[in-house]
Amino acid sequence: MRRTLESIAVVMLSLFSLGLQAGSSRVSFQKAEGRIDVLVEGKPFTSYYFSPDLPRPFFHPLRTADGKVVTRGFPMVPDAPGETKDKDHPHHRSCWFTFGDVDGVDYWGEAAKVQGRIVHHSIDKLEGGAQSGVLAVTMDWIDNAGQKVLRQKQQVVFHGDATRRYMDFVIALVALDRDVKFRDTKEGMFAIRLATPLKEQNGGMITNSRGGVSEKNCWGKPAEWVDYSGLLDGQKVGVTIMDHLTSFRHPTTWHVRAYGLFAANPFGLRDFTGDQTMDGSYVIPKGKSITFRYRILIHPGDAAAAKIAEEYETYRRDKSNF
Fold first, then answer.
1. 2-317: CATH, from 1.10.10, 1.25.40, 2.70.98, 2.40.50
2. pLDDT of 42 higher than 60
3. What is the Cα–Cα distance from 80 to 72, expressed in whole angstroms?
4. How far apart are CA 70 and CA 80, in angstroms?
5. What is this structure's pTM?
């Protein structure tokens, strides 16, 4: 077990020469109580929230290169402008990673009958730089009985240029004292809740790597990437999530909704297809791990204008340290 955790830590701390852009902006961090602010060229980009009274750590908000907020404010900002009718799903906290059924325990919701929590354990690396910044952390998944079930090792590399912002995630989950089963459900996993103006219901557009357009043609479907774009303060902007070819169960399936939820979920096969003979469950054996690798790209324009297919090829081809 200890060797497994140590080997994951070594791999993760060496992973990210991945996809760094020449000429990227300087990234710096500012620490506060229960929060780490991320700045690109001195401008706020996002913050990592990890106070122990939270149901799980999360990033909030996410911004474009010129400062527009692309994520919903609620519930962190209870009375955010323009969100009076957009206060559903209070567990949708901006940008987060969790799942709705792990051995029967819900880590996705916040008021479940069998409720789990994800608790920040440590900051393992916090390093700014001229091209990128790195935040590596450890978290514990704690079940309804107070038992630590999973150890999460997460590294995020932040970088950007004059018009784009990137977050590159490597997330490893280690089963601690027993086998751990992720059961088939749509409720997960690597997720963003988008700002109200970007929702498909408000004219936004959902597009995937395989030509699907709209929730109807992207929800529950496998794809290498999904982009969600729309008008924000009069400007067309978009957010892309990319699934790296070395990520668990690539290409992932997607829980992406017209009301602004945007999530990669590799476990929800029965829920997504409605086929009761299918089962997306997966058991992590005691002491073993699975690893997820995702990129978030925040860009001007829609998927075509931002050349997301080309952006993904750059991300896909880079196998540095994999």
1. 2.70.98
2. yes
3. 8
4. 13
5. 0.92
